[in-house]
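Researcher: Quick test of sequence recovery. Tokens follow.
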């Protein structure tokens, strides 16, 4: 019976990640297209908005991690925030993909800015407590790893559902067509109605899956309250942990490459390919590669160090993208999808390795600073993802502006716009992977004998604390 409850809890916890990634996927993969094509927002405005939102996230994310540490309710410290955050994030997601007051000009700019920043805040409200909840289930390291793996698998499922299903759903609910000047055919394009309906579906699923997660899990391990939030202290901790800063840099750059592909894909299949539905096949390749990639890192680490395995993962990603670039310019869409599987395998393995590196960074911080700063360190994972999205946004909107992209022309855009979109899809990302690889290989030092010594020190510190508590 206990085993059945444990399995039920793991699966219920994993389901929560599906809902979070449905909202996450809509925001990072489809919002840019909605803002430029449906609302007609200027690239210059969006280039300013994103960095401003990140400045606030730099305060909000570590603050939320500390608030969670100091929460005490009958439901525990994590589950109330997961449910509250999911409900609020679902509401904001719907408003983000609608224009209920038919605003324009300055009014729509203010509305977009407000809902954009609110989405980030409400996402943080659910995301940080969700991923911080694992230690509350069990103190067994093997069980924790299993729970984390299940959650990552469900997270990938959520990403796959939204990236594959959203283009099909949006096409089904679209009532707008555009005539292709080259073929003379009328093609359905995604419009305001299709974005709104898809956002509503994702929002409903987010609330449903968060409810299942909260209702089927139980926080069994009680952890001590953390210190009250102090921006000065948080910044001091981040600044003092040089390996956290290095990690933030190389992870942000590599993650931006991945986000650039997912964000540009909707432009690519609308403008370059001329068939938005084919994005679903492209996204299926990503999903297949992501599943295989989850198996790659454990296999690699049997024969090599984590450091070497991470380098191989980025190399595989760059190789896959190089093949995508050649096939894209040659007009071989099917072969491009096959190479995308290879690229996604490397990316998936890369993401898992980055999660492992964060645990090493916490240990390093304990040895260097004399105390552990888990909540602040792990809150940086969400922040670096947002920073990666910011970098992606800067590249995306700058390129669209420079190449003269016209949101009303769709597949009838200029050759310069089509070339720019293709470069962003499969040429710029591998360049970012290589830059990230160079920074990781030259600046990240938590490996080999040095990391072994850190691990020994952390274990010794733990044994001392347990001995003192036993007295």
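Model:
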């Amino acid at each position: 019976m206990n085993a059945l409850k444990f399995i039920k809890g793991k699966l219920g916890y994993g389901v929560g990640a599906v809902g979070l990634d449905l909202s996450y996927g809509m925001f990072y993969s489809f919002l840019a297209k909605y803002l430029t094509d449906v609302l007609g927002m200027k690239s210059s405005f969006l280039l300013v908005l994103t960095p401003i939102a990140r400045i606030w996230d730099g305060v909000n994310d570590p603050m939320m991690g500390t608030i969670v540490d100091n929460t005490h309710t009958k439901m525990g410290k994590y589950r109330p925030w997961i449910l509250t955050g999911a409900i609020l994030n679902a509401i904001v997601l719907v408003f983000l993909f609608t224009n209920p007051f038919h605003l324009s000009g300055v009014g729509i700019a203010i509305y977009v800015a407000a809902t954009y920043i609110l989405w980030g805040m409400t996402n943080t409200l659910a995301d940080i407590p969700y991923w911080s909840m694992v230690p509350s289930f069990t103190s067994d390291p093997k069980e924790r790893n299993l729970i984390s793996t299940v959650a990552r698998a469900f997270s990938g499922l959520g990403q796959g559902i939204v990236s594959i299903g959203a283009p099909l759903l949006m096409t089904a609910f679209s009532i707008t067509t555009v005539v292709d000047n080259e073929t003379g055919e009328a093609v359905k394009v995604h419009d305001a109605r299709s974005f709104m309906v898809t956002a509503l579906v994702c929002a409903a699923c987010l609330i449903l899956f968060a409810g299942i997660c909260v209702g089927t899990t139980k926080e069994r391990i009680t952890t001590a309250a953390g210190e009250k939030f102090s921006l000065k202290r948080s910044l001091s901790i981040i600044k003092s942990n040089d390996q956290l800063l290095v990690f933030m840099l190389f992870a942000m750059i590599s993650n931006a490459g991945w986000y650039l592909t997912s964000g540009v894909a909707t432009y690519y299949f609308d403008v370059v390919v001329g068939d938005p539905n084919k994005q679903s096949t492209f996204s299926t390749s990503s999903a297949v590669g992501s599943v295989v990639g989850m198996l790659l890192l454990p296999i690699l680490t049997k024969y090599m160090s984590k450091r070497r395995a991470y380098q191989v993962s980025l190399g595989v990603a760059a190789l896959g993208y190089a093949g995508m670039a050649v096939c894209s310019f040659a007009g071989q869409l099917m072969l491009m999808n096959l190479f995308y599987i290879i690229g996604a395998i490397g990316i998936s393995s890369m993401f898992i390795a980055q999660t492992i590196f964060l645990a090493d960074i916490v240990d390093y911080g304990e040895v260097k600073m004399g105390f552990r700063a888990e909540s602040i360190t792990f809150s940086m994972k969400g922040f670096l993802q947002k920073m990666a999205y910011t970098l992606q946004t800067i590249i995306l909107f700058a390129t669209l502006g420079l190449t003269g992209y016209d949101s009303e022309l769709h597949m009838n855009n200029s050759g310069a716009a089509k070339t720019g979109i293709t470069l962003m899809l499969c040429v710029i990302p591998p360049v970012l992977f290589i830059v990230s690889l160079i920074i990781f290989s030259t600046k990240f030092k938590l490996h080999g004998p040095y990391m072994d010594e850190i691990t020994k020190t952390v274990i010794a510190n733990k044994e001392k604390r347990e001995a003192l508590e036993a007295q």
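The chain has a mean pLDDT of 87.
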